[in-house]
Specification:
Elements (H helix, E strand, L loop, with lengths): L1 H13 L12 H6 L4 H20 L4 H16 L2 H15 L3 H9 L5 H20 L2 H25 L20 H14 L12 H19 L4 H25 L4
Helix pairs in contact: 3-4, 3-8, 3-9, 5-6, 5-7, 5-11, 7-11, 8-9, 8-11, 10-11
Pfam families: CobS
Subcellular location: Cell membrane
Keywords: Cell membrane, Cobalamin biosynthesis, Magnesium, Membrane, Transferase, Transmembrane, Transmembrane helix
């Protein structure tokens, strides 16, 4: 029962999917639910894939892809996209740690955030549209899972730096246990089995490079991470996974 409540807590935290009332709220469970983020990612990707499949029966693949992207954004309430936009604004307009954190707390979206979001969504759409239709659904499922594995790994690699208690992400970003990290890693790696091709594991190389670079960048400028950095890690690694599949298709005739 405890693990079921942890799973529903993770589902409640990063999506708008209703959970049973008996789950309730517990800051302790919120702090330990990180292990299930990749599993929730599978659900988000699967629902996006379902929307793509249904829409593709009526519309063209590009329209179906856009509708699936809208579906996943609605499911999460643009939770991660908002973090990515805040990081673009903060690191783009800030010149020291205090200013970067101050800008990221601002609910308004600036020029850096707007431009960053447009480019990110365009890249995501173009990458998915370039994949064979048969790979769009498995790609959505795996990308939404493995990208959240990398976001969880950042909670373990870096220190949380915002000192106030107002951040809505703080309860899930402290005291990440090594067991939670390994569970998240195993879930993310298992999701890759859906491709039934060992070569898909080569996508981990660019994903690990992106993780290293982003964490080094966050650490250099603010000395660790905040919740917006996790959203950025999720969004960037999701797109890199799509691009890596395309690269495998070109270099190794993956599809």
């Amino acid at each position: 029962m405890k693990q079921i409540k942890l799973f529903f807590t993770a589902l409640m935290f990063i999506t708008r999917i209703p959970v049973p009332k008996w789950v309730g709220y517990s800051e302790d469970r919120l702090n330990k639910c990180n292990r299930y983020f990749p599993l929730v990612g599978i659900i988000i990707g699967a629902m996006g894939g379902l929307v793509f499949w249904l829409a593709n029966l009526i519309f063209t693949p590009p329209i179906a892809i856009i509708l699936s992207m809208i579906a996943t954004i609605l499911l999460t309430g643009a939770f991660h996209e908002d973090g990515f936009a805040d990081v673009c604004d903060g690191f783009g307009g800030g010149w020291n740690k205090e200013k970067i954190l101050e800008i990221m707390k601002d609910s308004r979206v600036g020029a850096y955030g707007m431009i960053g979001m447009i480019l990110l969504l365009m890249l995501k759409f173009l990458a998915l549209n370039a994949l064979p239709n048969s790979l769009v659904i498995p790609s959505l499922i795996v990308a939404h899972s493995i990208s959240r594995t990398f976001a969880v790994s950042t909670m373990y690699s870096l220190s949380y730096v915002r000192e106030d208690e107002l951040s809505k992400s703080k309860p899930v970003t402290k005291n990440l246990h090594i067991t939670d990290l390994w569970i998240a890693i195993i879930m993310g790696l298992i999701s890759l089995l859906i491709f039934r091709n060992w070569e898909v594991y080569l996508t981990l190389i660019p994903l690990l490079i992106a993780k290293y670079w982003l964490e080094r960048y966050f650490n250099k400028w603010i000395g660790g991470y905040v919740g917006d950095c996790l959203g950025t890690m999720q969004q960037v690694t999701e797109v890199i996974f799509y691009l890596s599949l395309l690269a495998l298709g070109t270099l190794l005739q993956f599809f």
